[in-house]
Automatic annotation (TrEMBL):
Protein known as: Peroxidase
Organism per entry: Lupinus albus (White lupine)
Family per record: Belongs to the peroxidase family. Classical plant (class III) peroxidase subfamily.
Reaction catalysed by this enzyme: 2 a phenolic donor + H2O2 = 2 a phenolic radical donor + 2 H2O
Plant heme peroxidase family profile domain boundaries: 83-410
Known EC number: 1.11.1.7
Entry GO MF terms: heme binding; lactoperoxidase activity; metal ion binding
SUPFAM superfamilies for this protein: Heme-dependent peroxidases (SSF48113)
Active site: 124 (proton acceptor)
Length: 412
């Protein structure tokens, strides 16, 4: 009787998901080489599972995870995440996810900016040699003469390292030497995105930590805020992401603030001209000038003008959000909705690389499609691609190590 009830409940919840899937397929009827999609539960309901810690045995989660495993296509490389499992620590550290979840919740309600900070930190980690926590290391393979990955120019404005350290300390007290820093970062990011209003997505675990970091790769392979759409798609394509996945991942910019250090060159020295980007609408340019005045940054040969050093941290709180970008032209809704894409449609992209999504026909169509509903299509795709990214080139099994301190490799 109970079994029948659980099946009935699962089917009841799954029905609207299938209807949403049909809607998505109608929206994109001619997608090539893409797998079917599974609509994820809306955040209001997912947060109840998150808060009550009931999704471990909930039939909806079981159905969603099974559907996810069958319909997500990963980038099949040597380390493709196939060795990861759900609830890897169920025996070795059964309270692991609870500790991550409760710690992030405490941090979030004091520091709402932790969500975009961790999302960016996680992206920069996974984009370079996979989700292996190499971004957290203070040195490269104990070589003091070699720069660490976090010191590469694109990574110098990353934040959230201390938050991962806080979670690691609590886990080390509960389960010494068990939970990897790579899994902590993946789980903490998922939970932070959910708290910020984003969609829930399952995170498989069992990642190991890299014993070294990758300074040169981070310097050359992280997408830049001044990249054109061709280079952006090329860099994402090298990691196995198609146009649709790239556009949905960039939608993560809709939470948090874009620092003036990334916006400044577009406002005052676009492409070395000494002038603003002529494509910025005049009213929006005035708004951007107001938020990012001309005297906040300087440039040196060591630090190109698209980024500022940590030494200029006094201006780190200056910037703009996509909420601000859109508010002057149209009202926006919740934090994790379509306002990023609506901004691009109106020529109000904060970053040149963001606005460049409108410069190619296919990416422009995707921007338009994502902005055309209540955000459900974007949220579904974002959840889907975050799961894919979290399994990108992971270390598992006998590969890698479990660090005791996330900033230091375990010595041999």
């Amino acid at each position: 009787m109970g079994c029948c009830f659980n099946i009935s409940l699962a089917l009841t919840i799954l029905l609207p998901i299938l209807l949403s899937l049909a809607f998505t397929n109608n929206l994109y009827p001619h997608r090539e080489n893409e797998t079917s999609e599974t609509e994820f539960h809306h955040n209001s309901i997912s947060f109840q599972y998150f808060k009550n810690n009931s999704y471990h045995s909930n039939p909806f989660f079981t159905v969603m995870l099974a559907s996810t495993n069958s319909s997500f296509s990963f980038n099949h490389r040597l380390r493709d995440g196939s060795n990861l499992v759900y609830d890897f620590y169920r025996e070795s550290c059964p309270q692991a996810q609870d500790i991550v979840r409760s710690t992030i919740s405490r941090i979030y309600f004091d520091h709402r900016d932790v969500s975009p900070a961790l999302l960016r930190l996680f992206f920069h980690d996974c984009f370079i040699q996979g989700c292996d926590a190499s971004i957290l290391l203070d040195d490269s393979n104990d070589d003091k003469n070699r720069s660490a990955e976090k010191q590469a120019i694109p990574n110098q404005t990353l934040r959230g390292f201390d938050k991962i350290d806080m979670i690691k300390e609590e886990l080390e007290q509960a389960c010494p030497g068990v939970v990897s820093c790579a899994d902590i970062l993946a789980l903490a990011t998922r939970d932070a995105v959910l708290l910020a209003g984003g969609p829930f997505y399952p995170v498989l675990t069992g990642r190991k930590d890299s014993h070294r970091s990758f300074f040169e790769e981070a310097t050359n392979q992280i997408p830049r805020p001044d990249d054109n759409v061709t280079r952006t798609l090329h860099l994402f394509g090298l990691k196995g992401f198609n146009e649709r996945e790239t556009v949905s991942l960039l939608g993560g910019h809709n939470i948090g603030k874009i620092g003036c250090d990334f916006i400044h060159p577009r406002l005052y020295n676009f492409m070395g001209t000494g002038q603003p980007d002529p494509s910025i609408p005049h009213d929006f340019l005035l708004q951007m000038w107001l938020n990012c005045p001309n005297n906040i940054t300087t440039t040196t040969d060591e630090f190109p003008d698209f980024v500022v050093s940590k030494r200029m941290s006094s201006h780190s709180d200056l910037g703009m959000s996509y909420m601000q970008a859109l508010s002057a032209s149209v009202s926006s809704g919740a934090a994790f909705d379509t306002h990023y894409y609506q901004s691009l449609l109106r020529g109000r992209g904060l970053l040149f690389a963001d606005q460049q999504l409108m410069a190619a026909e296919k990416t422009a169509r995707l921007v338009s499609a994502y902005s055309s509903d209540d955000g459900s299509t974007f949220r579904t795709d974002f959840a889907r691609v975050m799961l894919k990214m979290s399994n990108l080139d992971v270390l598992s099994g006998l590969q890698g190590q479990v660090r005791l301190n996330c900033s230091q490799p375990v010595s041999s």
